[in-house]
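FORM 7B: Structural annotation worksheet

SECTION A. Query
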Amino acid sequence: MAEKVIFETKPSLRRAHLSSLVYALLTVGIRYLASSSAIASWLLLGVLGVILIHMLYETVRVACTSYRITDQYVELEEGIVARKSKRVPWLKITNFTREQSVSGRMLGLVNVLIDTPGHDQWELEFFELAMADADRIMELLQEYVPDAKGPVGEAAAEGNVEK
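SECTION B. Predicted structure
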């Protein structure tokens, strides 16, 4: 029987784009303060180059990362040069939660963490998800893994459950 994809998503680019915007504004500020210096012009060009490289890297990183939920597995694929794929069968999932940092709250980004037995850290970590994607993943986890120690009720809605 063929595996059926139930849900698939990618990390959000909000954090990368916001940090690039902040860097660009700082660069313009530096240029304004040192407008008469030739060294400042070259410095500005260098900083803008770094910002451009950062934005390009983050865009490629997100394009090369995918989170997939099928009827048999939860899967993470990532990597720009070296591809890495982790698949966890539904039956092995024992715990799941979501966490949100202060900057994540401001940007509407959530991390979903999935655990299996025998690991000191989380087995799968879905980073920088849009809130709607994280909510959908949590619903699917609660539906497909009823015996896991996942968040239930108010704790799930608030994201206050930790490993």
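SECTION C. Observations
The CA atoms of residues 98 and 159 lie 6 Å apart. The first helix runs from residue 14 to 33.

SECTION D. Sign-off
Analyst initials: ____
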